[in-house]
Amino acid sequence: MVLGAGLYWLQPWKLWQDETVREALPTVAGGQSGTGSSGTGSSGTGSSGTGAPPAAPVTVARGTLISHEHSTTGAVELIRLPDGSHTLRLVNLDTSNGPDLRVWLADAPVKEGVAGWRVFDDGKYVSLGKLKGNKGDQNYPVPTGVNVADYTSISIWCDRFDVSFGAASLTSV
């Protein structure tokens, strides 16, 4: 009984299972309102940016993933869509699979090594949903009302063990 509960909790088989996702860059939002959940103090006041929305998707920030608890590589792009909404895009993601992995926008600084493993739930964060796959290109709509200017990083967060698998600082372009 204890062994069964331990296996269910840890889900060690996921370390040997890969899920590859190949999503195209979105051109319109499509059902983005209210899809994520917020952590401490993360109520936004609207989209960042000024003026009319672009005619095509525009990258407004980007970063490169670093490894934390698990080896993680790839790029991150924060994209403003023509309707003014935002999508976080993971490009060429390669990390370990694991139990209860999430994609978080956060205001925490990205730190290398063990010092960066647990900082992302210390401040303001928004969950963009479950990680769709541990490899590939994937899109995560930013919920309506989230001010993306309030967030400086992203984390591939393991909710089960409260640890970052990997993270990236977002730099405006």
Question: Which helices and strands occur, and which strands form pairs?
Answer:
Layout (H helix, E strand, L loop, with lengths): L1 H9 L9 E3 L14 E2 L19 E7 L1 E2 L5 E8 L5 E9 L6 E6 L18 E6 L4 E7 L11 E6 L4 E7 L1 E2 L1
Parallel strand pairs: 1-9
Antiparallel strand pairs: 2-8, 3-5, 3-12, 4-11, 5-6, 6-9, 7-8, 7-10, 10-11
Task: Write a structural description.
The structure is a single chain. The chain has 173 residues and is mainly beta. It is 5% helix and 38% strand. The chain is built from 1 helix and 12 strands; from the N terminus they run αββββββββββββ. The strands form 2 sheets. A 6-stranded mixed β-sheet has the order 1-9-6-5-3-12, with no helix packed on it. Strands 2-8-7-10-11-4 form a 6-stranded antiparallel β-sheet, with no helix packed on it. A hairpin with a 4-residue loop joins β10 and β11. The chain is globular, with a radius of gyration of 16 Å. Residues 31-36 and 40-49 have low confidence and may be disordered.
How is the biggest beta sheet arranged?
A: 6 strands, mixed
Radius of gyration: 16 Å
Q: How much of the sequence is in beta strands?
A: 35-45%
Q: What is the 3D shape?
A: globular
The beta-strand count equals: 12
Distance between the termini: 53 Å
Helix content: under 10%
Quick structural overview:
This protein is mainly beta and 173 residues long.
Structural descriptors:
single chain; 173 residues; mainly beta; six-stranded antiparallel β-sheet; 12 strands
